Amino acid sequence: MIITQTPFRMSFFGGGTDFPDYYREHGGSVISTTFDKYCIVSVSHLPRFFKYTNQVTYSKVERVKKIDDIEHPAVRNAMKYLDMHEPRINYEADLPARSGLGTSSSFAVGMLNAFYALKGKYADKRKLAEDAIYLERTLCDESGGIQDQIAVAYGGFNRIDFNANGFEVSPIIISTERKRMLNDNLMIFFTGFSRFSSQLAATQEKSIGDKLAELKEMHLLVDEAHNVLTSKGDLNEFGRLLDYTWRLKRGLTDEISNDSIDGLYKTAIEAGAIGGKLLGAGGGGFLLLYAEKDKQERVKAALKDYLYIPFEFENSGTKVIYYNSEFYEVTDAID
Fold first, then answer.
1. Phi, psi of 246 (to 5 degrees)
2. What are the beta bridge partners of residue 232?
3. pLDDT reported for residue 208
């Protein structure tokens, strides 16, 4: 049996510039971090005394004989891609799917990590990120950027730059005290809405040509935010930049926000938050806020109807937390 642990991510700046149609021509950059909420994927070979030969457990349980009968597209395509046979796959997570935290990419990376380990092969972080991008964007034909797969594979607080030749991950170097202050000033709340990010991403992808000015400005904000983090200046400027990038992002498509989310955000600002944004593609999920410590109780009170999630930054990325190799031989009966 193999068990992997893969963190979720929160993206601060540059979302949208990680779409291939944008960064291949203009370059792209994001600033993001992983944090201490995870998905756990366990994979083992299924004993051969069942009528089915493949079992996948997530929000539902699939028990099928043929790989092509697996409904979950990422599982089905990953099994074909890595020539997996007779697996028992289990997925569990600390936070809900379709909530703007890169959960589908965390699952993809964690599953691939487990598949490689079950086959007795080592895949480094770049390999896992590139394979997960290929799985989600090519094999599953899902719209979207490529930052999530990279962020959760590598882990940590990073700047990720994209160009036509690939990507580069650069840890953001700041003092422990300043990083702790940033962590302490950030809050996330669950809005209660969930959505398929690939559907929103498809809409954003179609509008790239019409929104180049906004995307270029969002790209420039990555440099500004990077400078704020690595300088000794006022860290609250990070919150003000979050507010500005959220206003830019809302202009990319009408589907990113709605009256309920706008009202929630306004309430948080009036309660003392300096800035914030919806995490992920938009449309719902988790709301990230930047609020100084002495304002946070007021913000929590104003948003008392929404679930507040404490968190800590993490640095490990995906990893195998349990490894027990087993003998396995493919038989002629396996399709």
1. -65, -40
2. none
3. 66
Give the length of the chain.
335
Question: Which residues are CB-contacts of 172 (< 8 A; sequence separation ≥ 6)?
Answer: 31, 157, 158, 159, 226, 229, 230
Mean pLDDT computed over 193-199: 55
Collapsing DSSP to helix, strand or coil, 27 comes out as coil
pLDDT value at residue 285: 84
**Strand ranges of the sheet holding 186-190, from the earlier edge strand across to the other edge:** 275-278, 286-290, 186-190, 307-308
Least Cα distance to 159 among 306, 265, 17 occurs for 17
Residue 17: count of CB within 10 angstroms of its CB: 25
Other residues' Cβ atoms within 10 Å of the Cβ of residue 324: 10
- Cα gap 283→204, rounded to integer Å: 12
Residue ranges of E strands in the chain: 2-13, 28-45, 54-57, 61-64, 87-93, 157-163, 166-171, 186-190, 275-278, 286-290, 307-308, 313-314, 319-323
Q: How many CB atoms lie within 10 A of CB 121?
A: 10
289/305 Cα distance (integer angstroms): 16
Helix axes 147-154, 125-133, angle to 10 degrees: 150
**pLDDT tens string 56-94:** 999 999 999 999 999 999 999 999 999 999 999 999 999
User: Token pair for residue 214?
Assistant: 């906004």
Q: Is 148:19 a contact under the CB 8 Å cutoff?
A: no
CB 133 within 8 A of CB 149: yes
Spatial separation of the C-alpha atoms in residues 142 and 164, rounded to whole Å: 20
Nearest to 44 by CA among 119, 94, 151: 119
Residues forming a β-bridge with 188: 288
Q: What are 135-188's pLDDT values in tens digits? A: 999 999 998 899 999 999 999 999 999 999 999 999 999 999 999 999 999 999
Tokens of 52: 């089915």
In 3-state terms, what secondary structure has residue 94? coil
Q: Model-level pTM?
A: 0.92
